[in-house]
């Protein structure tokens, strides 16, 4: 009799609702938004868990490899007193392929102060991978921007 009562109690007990499954594209776009916020506020600590150790960046005429190489310029800008006054990601398109995702977008960035003061804009392709714990991280970024000549180089 006690067993029957316990069985009935468990059958009638309210079960917590399972939250609806968030589509993978939305998860990737949320990660992209967190990356945008971190870049906007030059917050390398916020960006660090969102970027793979082996992340690569190709932007303009430069190529960086590794999380530290990606984050260090942001830290330097912040220390130099630079402020990102505007950072927009427009025409965003995300495609998920299993545990990988590709996001393309147009970006506009305005920086006040520091060595990179001014406006930059272009197109970006970001590649994400889904870790075993379900978190999406940035593994590659390719930003198409005009090359800036280095001092002393021929135009």
TrEMBL record:
SUPFAM superfamilies: NTF2-like. It comes from the Bacteria. Residues 43-137 form the DUF4440 domain. This is Nuclear transport factor 2 family protein.
């Amino acid at each position: 009799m006690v067993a029957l009562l316990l069985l009935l109690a468990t059958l009638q007990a309210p079960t917590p609702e399972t939250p609806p499954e968030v589509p993978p594209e939305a998860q990737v776009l949320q990660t992209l938004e967190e990356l945008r916020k971190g870049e906007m506020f030059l917050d390398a600590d916020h960006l660090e868990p969102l970027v793979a150790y082996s992340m690569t960046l190709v932007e303009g005429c430069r190529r960086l490899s590794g999380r530290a190489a990606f984050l260090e310029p942001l830290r330097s800008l912040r220390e130099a007193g630079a402020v990102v006054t505007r950072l927009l990601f427009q025409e965003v398109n995300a495609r998920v392929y299993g545990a990988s995702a590709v996001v393309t977008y147009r970006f506009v960035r305005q920086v006040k102060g520091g060595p990179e003061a001014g406006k930059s804009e272009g197109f970006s392709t970001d590649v994400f991978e889904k870790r075993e714990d379900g978190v999406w991280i940035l593994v590659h970024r390719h930003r198409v921007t005009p090359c800036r000549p280095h001092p002393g180089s021929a135009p």
